[in-house]
Specification:
The complex is a heterodimer of chains A (188) and B (408). Chain A is built from 5 helices and 8 strands; from the N terminus they run αββββββαββααα. Chain A is of the alpha+beta class. Chain A has a 5-stranded mixed beta barrel with strand order 4-5-6-8-7. In chain A, strand 1 and strand 2 form a beta hairpin. In chain A, helix 3 runs antiparallel to helix 5. The N and C termini of chain B lie far apart (81 Å). Chain B folds into 4 domains: 62 residues; 85 residues, Nucleic acid-binding proteins (OB fold (Dihydrolipoamide Acetyltransferase, E2P)), CATH 2.40.50.140; 84 residues, Nucleic acid-binding proteins (OB fold (Dihydrolipoamide Acetyltransferase, E2P), Beta Barrel), CATH 2.40.50.140; 127 residues, Nucleic acid-binding proteins (OB fold (Dihydrolipoamide Acetyltransferase, E2P), Beta Barrel), CATH 2.40.50.140. Chain B is built from 8 helices and 20 strands. Chain B has 408 residues and is α+β, with helices and mostly antiparallel strands. Classes of the chains: A alpha+beta (188), B alpha+beta (408). Chains A and B meet through strand 7, strand 8, helix 3 and helix 5 of A and strand 13 and helix 8 of B.
């Protein structure tokens, strides 16, 4: 157990939607109820928080007793499914206020859900959602491209990335292509 | 002299080299030498240590303690022989300690302790001594020379002037260090045993210092440059500080352009913490703490003559590390476009009051990219410059090249 003084907040990883959608592997470091739930992304890094910027295209209010909002956030590679429930009232109210379409920045926790048929649904439990501008979206694409390329370069050199290779059989060329295509959609 | 203590020492020494000695065997051998053969304890210790070292195939153990070693090469766990000058003696804090201070040679300096039980001759300030078979352990994260009953101390006929080497404050490590620095802040003393505390700065950065009350100790003058020789460098919660009670300090000519331990980080603002936005501060001079909603100061209780302030406590995250940052009023005004006066009038006329400012500040900055620079203090960056990151086409081009490479 690490002492309080050295507590470090988990960084928010940058990831494109098409990689996020492939995420299947999650684990806990120990059995303690409070220990964080991590996922390992196909390009080989653990994460329990992500930062994404994209276009909110749709939001829906759901549930009667336990109200929550669902939203779709699009980046150049695909779609993130966002959830904001009453256990995080701030994020829920932020989302309730935003009219789609809008550029939004979302900080949240990766969430994996396996259906009875064995399908894995990947979504983001939002901690916060704010309206941003197009420039912020472009900066995020560059940032995420850089982080993804760094991870690809480090593939096989860290325990987490070897685990990713084992779990996903990650093919770096596919992800390089995704990064390239995402960057191509940003206007010079 | 207690033989079980010697036994313990020999066992530990062997264990630190990976052997697993039998304590009973060690003690019976010692007893035999001391009681049956009248060997003195120090000699018995050396003999038994040497014998066991050979038996456990540890050739270095028996002999190494008699080879003369430079002080800066010594690591905790070693038995050593050194020659050094007593450059500082500090009053003993416990009856079990006869003397403590700092011993130095041309390579460096180290704190030492002479146990009362060692019955060692008192060493004098400014003299050179040869110290044989002392043991070095770790005390508060730095090496410390222990002089025990098996240690031989002999005064030397030597008087070589020592010039302590000055270390930039950013490169100090726990132990003993000498700096040339300027007194840049003189803080309020909060402890009755403390003479002075504040901040020293040199070209490489700043470091906290403390002088405890002690006869003959003088305060440092603000804005004056000092040569400080043989201060004790302590580490607490990952931060270093200098204790000047062991040190000799002399005011020096000239001035120093104090380097600020500035770091720069670029990242996304991923969290705006409670306590951001419009806050109330305690009006008592020198307090400035933020008040609760009921105008309560943790020290000065209810203060209704508070003054307002704007600030931002948040987390700037570059994807690798999330860092706490604190941004002061003028920068918050610039980043959000809300001045303090506007914030006050909005808060006073709005049904949710100060919360309205929190939301406005949050909505203006959360999720955006910034480059912040400033100094670290207590795990938080005190930001003195913060600018929004702008899109640079050349970065896009570079990344396209990197991603596309040959495929493009």
């Amino acid at each position: 157990m690490r002492p309080q003084a050295t507590f470090e907040r988990e960084p928010a990883r940058r990831i494109f939607a098409s990689e996020f959608r492939e995420t299947r592997y999650q684990f806990k470091e120990d059995d303690d109820e409070k220990s964080p739930n991590y996922v390992i992304f196909p390009t080989g890094i653990r994460s329990n928080r992500i930062f994404i910027v994209g276009t909110l295209t749709e939001k829906q209010r759901q549930g009667d007793q336990n109200i929550f909002y669902r939203g779709r956030v699009i980046d150049p590679t695909g779609t993130f499914f966002i959830m904001a429930g009453s256990y995080r009232p701030e994020a829920m109210q932020q989302l309730a206020r935003i009219e789609a379409p809008a550029f939004v920045a979302v900080v949240g926790k990766p969430n994996l859900f396996v259906t009875q048929e064995g399908n894995c649904l990947v979504s983001v439990n939002a901690e916060s959602i704010t309206v941003v501008d197009r420039e912020t979206r472009d900066l995020w694409v560059l940032d995420t491209a850089r982080e993804t390329l760094d991870r690809l370069d480090a593939l096989g050199t860290t325990a987490d990335s070897r685990k990713a290779q084992e779990e996903y059989g990650t093919q770096p060329e596919i992800y390089r292509k995704i990064v390239y295509d995402a960057l191509s959609q940003v206007q010079m | 002299m207690n033989l079980s203590e010697v036994t313990e020492r020999i066992s530990r020494k062997l264990e630190s080299s990976g052997a697993q000695p039998d304590r009973q065997k060690i003690e019976s051998r010692l007893r035999r030498l001391v009681e049956e053969f009248g060997v003195n304890v120090a000699e018995a210790e050396r003999t038994v240590t040497g014998d066991l070292a050979r038996e456990h195939n540890l050739p270095n153990l028996g002999s190494s303690s008699s080879d003369l070693r430079p002080i800066n090469e010594i690591a905790p766990g070693e038995w050593v022989t050194i020659e050094g000058k007593i450059v500082s003696l500090t009053p003993s804090i416990s009856p079990s300690i006869a003397q403590n201070g700092i011993i130095a040679d041309s390579s460096g300096a180290m704190r030492f302790v002479v146990w009362s039980r060692a019955n060692a001759p008192a060493m004098e300030y400014g003299h050179w001594y040869r110290i044989e078979s002392a043991v070095v352990d770790e005390y508060r994260g730095s090496p410390n020379l222990k002089i025990h009953s098996g240690t031989t101390i002999s005064q030397m006929e030597k008087d070589v002037p020592l010039l302590p080497s000055i270390t930039p404050s950013a490169e100090l490590t726990p132990g003993v260090g000498s700096v040339r620095a300027k007194v840049i802040q003189d803080w309020d003393v909060l402890h009755e045993r403390m003479l002075q505390t504040g901040l020293l700065g040199d070209e490489s950065g700043t470091i906290k210092f403390v002088i405890w009350k002690e006869e003959g100790k003088e305060k440092l003058e603000l804005d004056t440059v000092y040569n400080i020789y043989y201060a004790t460098v302590d580490e607490y919660n990952g931060r270093l500080s200098l204790t000047l009670n062991t040190a000799m300090y002399i005011a020096d000519e000239g001035d120093i352009e104090v380097g600020r331990n500035e770091t720069e980080i670029q990242g996304a603002l991923v969290h705006v913490a409670p306590g951001s936005g419009l806050i109330k501060r305690c009006p008592v001079e020198g307090c400035n703490r933020s008040l609760s909603r009921q105008n309560y100061c943790p020290v000065h209780e209810i203060q209704s003559n508070f003054r307002y302030d704007l600030r931002l406590k948040g987390v700037l995250d570059d994807g690798e590390r999330a860092r706490n940052i604190l941004i002061q009023r003028d920068l918050v005004e610039k980043l959000t476009g809300i001045t303090l006066d506007e914030a006050i009038s909005i808060a006073e006329s709005n049904p949710i009051g100060m919360d309205e400012i929190f939301y406005r500040v949050r909505n203006a900055v959360l999720g955006r990219y910034y480059t912040c620079s400033g100094g670290e203090f207590a795990g938080r960056m005190l930001v003195d410059s913060c600018v929004p990151v702008t899109f640079k086409p050349e970065e896009l081009a570079a990344l396209l090249n990197r991603a596309g490479g040959e495929a493009a």
